[in-house]
Amino acid sequence: MRERIKTGVPGLDDILNGGIPKGSFVLLSGVAGSGKTTLASQFLYEGLKNNERCVFISFEETPQLIKESMMDFGFDFGLYEKKGTMSFIKYDTYNTEGLFDVVESTIRNMKADRVVIDSISVIGLNMKNKAEFRRVILNLSNIMRKLGVTCIAISEIVPGKHLISRYGVEEFVSDGVIVLYYERKDNKFLRNIQVFKMRGDDHSKDLHRYDITPKGIVVSKT
């Protein structure tokens, strides 16, 4: 049985039968405001607390803004950055060919265990077609697998499109897919999480309620 990597999200590891299979490339999808970056950061912070080495690859926000935002949940990435176990990459997606070398060299030099990419949807904005975008995502996922890291890659869902990814191709090159649903029903906003796919794993595909608390995301077992 493959080793499991704890997500650090209360309730989610129960759904995943102990955690994400080590070395997996997992797509985390959701609409704006659903808590994707929070969940992914929680995943990294769990690793940091357990003496693992982590990399955050951002195609949108600056490292400083990410660190400031995550401090709201008590995730002090700056502390671990000073210790040398946390590294940030801010990359311009116009040069995708150079991206692969930067990502691989950073992960190798850090000897990283966990990686977050936020978000792969931004890469698609500069692609000519879906085939080219799929090639880029496949190359990134293959780098992660080759280096043996466990990676969460964030994808933005367009509201009302009924897709589990931005472009409808990301899920096919991913080992797992976790979807965050955030929708309005009557006068309430409901949050649900679903493990849509996790390769080689028998897991619950049911919808589970989740909340964004002052300490991060908490998933209900019911």
Q: What does this entry look like structurally?
A:
The chain has 222 residues and is of the alpha/beta class. It has helices at residues 12-15, 36-49, 63-71, 77-83, 96-110, 120-124, 130-147, and strands at residues 4-5, 20-21, 25-30, 54-58, 86-90, 114-118, 150-156, 176-185, 188-198, 208-213, 216-219. It is globular. The longest helix is centred in the middle third of the chain and has 18 residues, at 130-147. Strand 8 and strand 9 form a beta hairpin. The strands form 2 sheets. The chain has a 9-stranded mixed β-sheet with strand order 5-4-6-7-3-8-9-10-11, with helices on both faces. Strands 1-2 form a two-stranded antiparallel sheet. It has one domain: Rossmann fold (3-Layer(aba) Sandwich), CATH 3.40.50. The model has no long low-confidence stretch (mean pLDDT 91).
Spatial order of the strands in the main sheet?
A: 5-4-6-7-3-8-9-10-11
Tell me the number of strands. Answer: 11
User: What assembly state would you assign to the polypeptide chains in this entry?
Assistant: single chain
- Binned strand content: 25-35%
Low-confidence stretches: none
* Domain module count: 1
Instruction: Spell the H/E element sequence.
Output: EHEEHEHHEHEHHEEEEE
Instruction: Quote the distance from N terminus to C terminus.
Output: 26 Å
The CATH superfamily is P-loop containing nucleotide triphosphate hydrolases
Using the CA coordinates, give the radius of gyration: 16 Å
Query: Any idea what the CATH architecture is?
Result: 3-Layer(aba) Sandwich
Helix content: 25-40%
Reported by name, the CATH topology is Rossmann fold
Shape: globular
CATH class: Alpha Beta
